[in-house]
Amino acid sequence: MNFDELKKQWNKEDNESSAQISENMLKIKEAHTPVDLIRKKMKHEFYIQIISLIVMAFLPKLFNFSTELKLVFFIFYAITCGFTAYYFFKFYTSYKHSYDLSLDSRKNLLWFYYEMKMNLELYKALTYIIGFIALAFGCIYLLVIKNVALTKFISELPVLYLILNCFVSILLLGFITELWSRYYYGKYLNQIKKILDSLDME
């Protein structure tokens, strides 16, 4: 092989490598659209959840809770705020850190994908926690505030019915949470995953 042929082969390999890099860069740039949409939705959801917590604080006034019920409500409200504050902290730090990254590399895009997956799992866990807190508040309301005797309560409503009702409520809560997370974030995360998979294959 003479020098000219070697030079041609070298140039061909350089062109192929440049084309490959350019194609990868285009794919990474393509991921910016779902990333931007996820960031926008994160910002909206953050404000919605803050407003929801503020509205919850006024429930005793709206429904004319008694003094005893107000005390119980605000204990459970404080617990809810404690769990939610942790979620907000994780959610907000992930959101801010995503802007510190250039997201022009596969590594940073991969970080964003798995960070959002973790945030979604935290979101689901928080939903279950708040659901159980609401259930506990309901039980205290019935058994303590309304002075409903436990034996009377059980005799009027069969135990099997109560267990089944709680089970169905938890299943329904889980189904709605899964559906909401998939609808709100899932489709955009799937787009990012497809781009990451195509980069892996190359």
UniProtKB/TrEMBL annotation:
Q: Which UniProt keywords apply?
A: Membrane, Transmembrane, Transmembrane helix
Q: Where are the transmembrane segments?
A: 46-63, 69-89, 125-145, 157-180
Full protein name: Uncharacterized protein
